[in-house]
Amino acid sequence: MGRKTQISKEVILEAALKMLIRDGYSSINIKTLSKEIGCSTQPLVWHFKNMEGLRKALSEYALNYANCKMRPSHESAVAAFEQVGIAFIHIAVNKPNLFRFLYLEGYCGSPSDNFDALITDKNNAALIKRISKDLDLSEEHAGRYLQNTIIYTHGIAALAATGIINASEKEIMQLVNRAADAFLVQEGVISEQIPHREETQK
Fold this sequence. Notes:
67% of the residues lie in helices and 0% in strands. With 202 residues, the chain is mainly α.
């Protein structure tokens, strides 16, 4: 039976996530990560075998971290959707290395064949039903609103995370909110029906 390691997988992944956020994924390898932790390379090889094993585990760990940050709590479907957008923008602006790793370099899961995957995603599909009910919209219209808003938000977040634009979270959210309102109007929601939102305090 092999010798047990005293460094847990959780400790290794937490250190790897810290390096990813601080320095980017390219900074991480078995030697640099073991130095970050203050241990030999043996525990890393024990748990993950090689860099491919570590990368896969880190991808899941980092995505879970990001998803926890973006978990909505508001009862209103539109407000909950906005909470997700605010958290997404916050990651792009404040943790650009994490954003690029997950959402630009493709480590957040399997690539989708088309934009319809945004609507058929299990969590998004549930949110579409809530938006449809809250705003008295058909699910088709609610789905288009969600799809268009996600695409717009992802685009502007990518511009911020890559340094192409230099704007505050508040400025970015103002743009996203204006676009989201326009998408609602486009789907037949009159201005008076659009839920009032508190000004983003970022």
